[in-house]
Amino acid sequence: MSGPVPALASLGAVALALWFAAPIDASSGGAAWWFWPLLVLFLALSWYALRRLMAVGDRGARALIVPGLFGVILVYLWQILVVGLGIRGTLLPAPSVILAALLDSPEILAQDFVHTFFKSMIPGYVIGCGSGLIVALLVDRVPFLQRGLLPMGNFASALPMVGVAPIMVQWFGPDWPSKAAVVVIMTFFPMLVNAIAGLHALGRIERDLMRTYAASYGTTLRLARLPAALPFLFNALKVNSTLALIGAIVAQFFSSPTVGMGFRISTEVGRFNIDIVWATIVVAALAGSLSYGGIAMIERRSTFWHPSFRKTA
Questions:
Q1: Smallest Cα–Cα separation from 189: which of 161, 164, 153?
Q2: Which are the contacts of 251, defined by CB distance < 8 A and separation ≥ 6?
Q3: DSSP 3-state assignment of 175?
Q4: Per residue in 157-189, pLDDT tens?
């Protein structure tokens, strides 16, 4: 097998054999004795196929096919091991069971997603990131504020969310404003720290050039310092995109008007509907991944000049 095609064909054949070696469902007993040698062979072929794909000269194959195949292999292993080991669904449901729950409850999951993502996460994300950037500009303009605001921001970021969320419910009520407030607290400090670091990232040569042109503070900020800070700002935006969703979900554990991902998880766990819980987790993971990926795409288009995005041979 000198190329990736024979390796992928062999991998598919072993995966098909594994499927028939495992029982139909977890309650029908353990797998056949030849399941385990096939599993070892599948792992070895997966490693070999991924190595062969990484050696392909096409950058598109390395950037898209390899991560996609790796994800498919992980999901397939999850399915095979859960079924082969006879793991109960209340402990860890198989991906097929989670997919069935996704297909059976689209309206409920969609309502939870809209309430959590658009009504709680997005407002808190925008306010938290925006206020962090504004405060960073104030700190940069008035240096003595750095001594007072940074410790306060650090203190706010260290507050436990399980303690802050009930307080926010008392202040802003049980609906989405209290969840957005929790998101603001979680996203403010990462943006503040990254923005301050980015505003000081301009090189000495560039600073001297702006002084040579007698550029004002505003002109230097707009034409030189903010562009140089873009990689730091996008880094904060990417980190906060996942933190914001986590904060919104956790805040809904304490109070929510019978809708939301956090409410769904806490309620269905008590009912032992673990498939719905995992379906909600999958929706949250997809939303967080797509948010992160969307911001990364905008970052790549906006900071194509940065050394980290320059194409290498």
A1: 153
A2: 120, 161, 165, 168, 169, 178, 179, 182, 183, 262
A3: coil
A4: 677 777 777 888 888 887 888 888 889 988 998
From residue 223, give the alpha-carbon distance in Å to each of 135, 217, 229, 230, 266.
20, 10, 11, 12, 49
Contact status, residue 120 vs residue 252, Cβ threshold 8 Å: yes
Residue 78 burial (C-beta neighbours within 10 Å; 0-12, 13-18, 19+): middle
Above 90 in pLDDT, residue 126? yes
The torsion angle over the Cα atoms of residues 94, 284, 261 and 236, rounded to 10 degrees, is 150
- Residue the block writes with tokens 């670091």: 197
| Measured distance CA(98)–CA(24) in Å, rounded | 16
Give tens-digit pLDDT for 16-30: 777 766 664 444 455
Span 140-161, pLDDT tens digits? 887 777 676 777 767 776 777 7
